[in-house]
Write a structure and sequence with these properties.
The chain is an alpha/beta fold and 405 residues long. It has three domains: 22-144, no CATH class; 147-244, Rossmann fold; 267-396, Rossmann fold, CATH 3.40.50. 30% of the residues lie in helices and 20% in strands. It has eleven helices and 14 strands. The chain has helices at residues 21-26, 38-47, 110-118, 125-142, 169-173, 193-209, 226-235, 294-300, 322-342, 357-365, 397-404, and strands spanning 62-63, 72-73, 75-79, 105-109, 152-159, 177-185, 218-223, 242-244, 267-272, 280-286, 304-310, 348-354, 374-381, 384-391. A six-stranded mixed sheet has the order 9-11-10-12-13-14, with helices on both faces. The chain has a four-stranded parallel sheet with strand order 6-5-7-8. A hairpin with an 8-residue loop joins strand 1 (62-63) and strand 2 (72-73). Helix 9 packs across helix 10. The longest helix is centred in the C-terminal third of the chain and has 21 residues, at 322-342. The radius of gyration is 28 Å and the shape is elongated. The N and C termini lie far apart (98 Å).
Length: 405
């Protein structure tokens, strides 16, 4: 055989390496050279505790099999603003050298790194900065190995007839974490309001029976009829640590959005007054749509007063940040207190609510069990409002919990 015909070691004739379409997608633009200084590496890995920064992941980024295999590192340093001008979240106004600094990096596992780069529209720079900040705060306060007890929330999923997506609950609670989770299913199409009220009362009481009313924390994620949300908030009246969250359908997320501009805040007024101290009171919450209560007022009859809590432009997109929810709670509390003083002999209040589910929860929390008369809630079923849950004075899970102590 001639020497020119000898096969070359390690080469298979006629075959060429296959190209990865996945790799092509992420490297379609030239990558810039990486230049991480030692300080950056220490800060990034240390402050993240060697864990993925995504709240629904947080796995350790080291895999070890003691005795025979080396440590396998599955962590990757992702760029908030892309390292190259044409990469995910690229920004040509930021110098290349600055893109490899700690401020522009986030520690992730390989799966999450891939996710944020492909779904870059869902993970803009401001969201990644918030995820990183929340994770590092969680490391400082919640990791048991850091000598601090874990900060956790009892999660209530208040679920109606609509699909419930719990995927981003962990991210919404960050830097804290979820503890026990309870799902309470509400269906006004399959159960009577009397049965729904009984079920809610039983499950909420069971939830808090073994917990401390002051130190325990409850996070409510509601997608249920507003009457059920109001009653749930009322059952937890005066409980110190209760948070309610809004599901943002456009983002498919429970995470509160950062405040970018002044938000429309609710205001209230007494639109119809009465000279009778025993007048029945109607409270209209017009946050997502105006409410017409004329038919209900005619059916009630007698002396009446009407309070309206509204925003300038009612819309289903009104509630975007927690500041709006906090202000709604303050306005509702102030309105209820003023009404109770002005009409101390009122035998019945009526609540008509057009707004997002977490708003109904915080409004229910403002109903003081020791001050209110019977409170009738309503559900809107076109073309009228239908009576649903009737809240009796002192019918509070927390008040009965306190009495048993």
């Amino acid at each position: 055989m001639k020497s020119g015909n000898k096969p070359v070691a390690g080469r298979v004739k006629g075959l060429t390496p296959k190209r990865s379409h996945i790799g092509d997608e992420l490297s379609s633009s030239a990558k810039s050279p990486r230049n991480y200084d030692p300080q950056t590496l220490k800060l990034l890995w240390g402050r993240a505790a060697g864990r993925c920064a995504m709240a629904d992941c947080r796995i350790e980024l080291f895999v070890a099999e003691p005795g025979y295999d080396p440590v396998c590192i599955i962590g990757e340093m992702g760029h908030v603003v892309a390292s190259s001008d044409g990469g995910p979240r690229g920004n040509t106004t930021i110098r290349l050298a600055a893109r490899d600094k700690y401020e522009n990096l986030i520690l992730l596992c390989r799966n999450c790194h891939r996710k944020i780069d492909v779904l870059h529209a869902s993970y803009p720079p401001e969201r990644l900065h918030q995820i990183k900040s929340d994770h590092e705060a969680w490391v400082r306060t919640a990791l048991p190995e850091r000598g601090a007890s874990a900060i956790s929330w009892q999660v209530i999923r208040l679920q109606g007839d609509f699909p419930f997506d719990p995927i981003t609950i962990a991210e919404a609670l960050a830097p804290d974490q979820a503890g026990s989770e309870t799902t309470i299913a509400i269906s006004a199409t399959r159960s009577s309001w009397e049965m729904i009220q009984k079920e809610l009362r039983g499950q909420i009481e069971a939830l808090i029976a073994g917990s401390n009313a002051i130190t325990s924390r409850i996070a409510i994620f509601p997608l249920a009829p507003v009457s059920a949300c109001i009653y749930t908030g009322y059952l937890l009246t005066n409980r110190v640590n209760v948070r309610a969250f809004q599901y943002h359908r456009d983002d498919a997320a429970w995470t509160w959005r950062p405040i970018k501009q002044p938000s429309s805040m609710p205001t209230f007024m007494e639109s119809v007054s009465s000279s009778s101290k025993s007048a029945e009171l109607l409270f209209l919450f017009q946050l997502t749509a105006p409410i017409s209560a004329e038919e209900l007022r005619r059916s009630i009859g007698g002396d009446q007063a009407v309070y309206e809590c509204s925003v300038a432009d009612p819309s289903t997109a009104w509630l975007t940040n927690k500041a709006q929810l906090d202000e709604l709670a303050r306005k509702a509390r102030e309105m209820f207190e003023i009404a109770a003083i002005r009409y101390p002999q009122s035998a019945r209040w009526h609540i008509l609510y057009a707004g997002p589910a977490p708003g109904a929860v915080v409004i229910g929390q403002q109903l003081n069990p020791t001050m209110i008369p019977v409170v009738q809630c309503y559900e809107f079923q076109r073309p009228r409002h239908i009576a649903s849950i009737a809240i009796e004075p002192h019918d509070s899970a927390l008040s009965r919990w306190t009495e048993r102590r």
